[in-house]
Specification:
single chain; 562 residues; alpha/beta; 4 domains; 8-stranded parallel β-sheet; 5-stranded antiparallel β-sheet; binds 1-O-alpha-D-glucopyranosyl-D-fructose; binds calcium ion
């Protein structure tokens, strides 16, 4: 594509605005050596599947050496591949395979924290005066208590006392994930070096884990009470955050034509331009959590409405000007399956609602991210007991909430079935053979979803009406439709509780997207004397043309050119 000063509808054209990204969670994608754990050679063996689907960029969740306290988000060595996932030559072969197919790869950059088994931390614990003593955030005890009241996302205090050094260290996540001290220039230098190490291999960018948390207020004031349930807004407000991101851009990113996407927990819409306004030279785009948090409060599930969902997209479109770019995603490895959350996972409507969500994901403004298995319409796992889970977040919360009898176990499990991160981490369902073709081992690291005989890639590739083939058609359509990327967005009926209906317009190119988010058959009169034009696509047999009124089937999606 063309870049540089070329614009579309006022936006500077960039390759990363026009691509569709597919997220791979290596542990659960494909096992190649029968140990029950997905690996890099497994991914390489499935590249043709991904190419056929039509995605452009693959994002790999962490593939680095790790003791796996948090499935690779606790890194022990940034320059080594996780032994379970393979070797550096395996990584190189994967990247080569991706390039040969004209796709790109971004990797996860997890540098707010490391593993406590990283050599920097092992050394840092030993003394207050060594080379590595200031690589982490150490503070003395505060009258027999931790330095402040900050809490960890994985339950309990964010401070743990290290007996060897006799001080507390900060960990916003698990005890085994100590936070790096970004105020130490040596730490920042280490991070820039390891970024260059992977860039030199030819990767195309980074997804940056909890990047807004890297700068901390050195005085560590207590988190105010009103933020107790959402300390991320405090953690993301460090004084030097933007200074460090601009330095990272200057030192590293400016020298490469790569994309960056920051996981922006704790960042409000109002603060977004500080990260992504192109004139500031920080990141290209960030992930906001408004949509995936719509139906939850912590581990608790809560009901949501379609007008609330639409209001989020409208607000983003209104507030972000032509210098900013956004992302669209409905799930990832930290969230349940979108069909179960925002669609209808029942046998009757699973496929239909998955197609409605696919249409929305691929026609809203922003770079879309598809999480593995969502292209098959995979659904949440029927967890029945605590032992069914693997996630440290779940296990720690169980200890903190259930074992202390604050929460009743049945209540906790009821919510976890709908909100747990493990819902999206069950193995990919490739075919109807034992363990869904994910592994030849008797027992995969996390159980395969019992639905695999009905929901699997082999079956869906063969069925022209499958969710997979619908995604494929949508991806082809998006590739040739610049209006879906840069076109103006207008929500025609924000208050409608069942229907999401909007236009995307780029000069003469105007599309009407109609999404029935309900099991109702709907008759809908178009507003403003609008007429439908040529039907480009219907997910469920819609046929009419040039109508003033629409007759929609339950969970039907349509796209018209008007
Ligand atoms: O996620 C941070 C994050 O927002 C979640 O862990 C969040 O606390 C959780 O989803 C709430 O239910 C990133 C990674 O994506 C996640 O997998 C890691 O566990 C975490 O950072 C620590 O690296
Ligand atoms: Ca394996």
């Amino acid at each position: 594509m063309v870049e540089g000063s070329i614009t579309a509808n006022g936006y500077t054209r960039k390759w990363w605005k026009e691509v569709v990204v597919y997220q791979i969670y290596p542990r659960s994608f494909q096992d190649s050596n029968g140990d029950g754990i997905g690996d890099l050679n497994g991914i390489t063996s499935r590249l043709d599947y991904l190419k056929l689907l039509g995605v452009d960029v693959l994002w790999l969740s962490p593939h680095y050496d790790s003791p796996n306290a948090d499935n690779g988000y606790d890194i022990r060595d940034y320059r080594k591949v996780m032994t379970e996932f393979g070797t550096m030559p395996d990584f190189d072969a994967l990247l080569k395979g991706i390039k040969e197919r004209d796709m790109k790869m971004i990797v996860d950059l997890v540098v707010n924290h490391t593993s406590d088994e990283h050599v920097w931390f092992v050394e840092s614990r030993k003394s207050k005066t060594g080379i590595y003593s200031d690589y982490y955030i150490w503070r003395p005890e505060n009258n027999g208590r931790p330095p402040n009241n900050w809490t960890s996302f994985f339950s309990g205090s964010a401070w743990s006392k290290d007996l060897l050094r006799g001080e507390y260290y900060l960990h916003l996540f698990a005890e085994k994930q100590p936070d790096l001290n970004w105020d130490n220039p040596k730490v920042r230098g280490e991070v820039y070096d390891l970024m260059k190490f992977w860039l030199a291999k030819g990767i195309d960018g980074f997804r940056m884990d909890v990047i807004p948390f890297i700068s901390k207020d050195p005085h560590f004031p207590d988190c105010p009470k009103e933020y107790a349930a959402h300390p991320e807004y405090i953690y993301a407000a460090g004084p030097k955050l933007h200074q460090y991101l601009q330095e990272m851009h200057r030192e590293v990113l400016a020298k490469y034509n790569v994309m960056t996407v920051g996981e922006a927990l704790g960042v409000t819409l109002e603060q977004t331009p500080l990260f992504v306004d192109e004139r500031r030279h920080e990141l290209n785009m960030i992930f906001h959590f408004d949509v995936v948090r719509l139906n939850r409060q912590g581990w608790r599930w809560k009901p949501w409405t379609l007008p609330e969902l639409k209001a989020i997209y409208a607000r983003f479109d209104r507030e972000l000007d032509l210098n900013n770019w956004q992302t669209v995603f409905l799930s990832n490895h930290d969230n349940p399956r979108p069909v179960s959350s925002f669609g209808d996972g029942s046998v009757m409507y699973r496929e239909r609602s998955a197609k409605v969500l696919a249409t929305m994901l691929l026609t809203l403004k922003g770079t879309p991210f598809i999480y593995q298995g969502d292209e098959l319409g995979m659904i949440n796992y029927p967890f029945s007991k605590i032992e069914d889970f693997d996630d440290i977040e779940v296990k720690n919360a169980w200890k903190a909430e259930v074992l202390t009898q604050r929460v009743n176990p049945e209540e906790y499990l009821f919510h976890l079935r709908k909100t747990s991160r493990d819902n999206s981490r069950t193995p990919m369902q490739w075919d109807d053979s034992p363990n869904a073709g994910f592994t030849t081992a008797a027992k995969p690291w996390l159980a395969v979803h019992p639905s695999y005989q009905e929901i699997n890639a082999k079956q869906e590739l063969a069925d022209p009406n499958s969710v997979y083939n619908y995604f494929k058609t949508m991806l082809e359509l998006r590739k040739k439709t610049l209006a879906f990327v840069y076109g103006d967005y207008r929500d025609l009926d924000p208050d409608n509780p069942f229907l999401f209906i909007y236009t995307r317009t780029l000069a003469e190119d105007k599309f009407l997207i109609v999404l029935n988010f309900s099991t109702n058959t709907l008759t809908y009169s178009l507003p403003d004397g609008l007429r439908t034009g040529q039907l480009v696509l219907s997910s469920f047999g819609g046929q009419e043309e040039n109508a003033l009124a629409l007759h929609l089937a339950a969970w039907e999606a349509r796209i018209y050119r008007i």
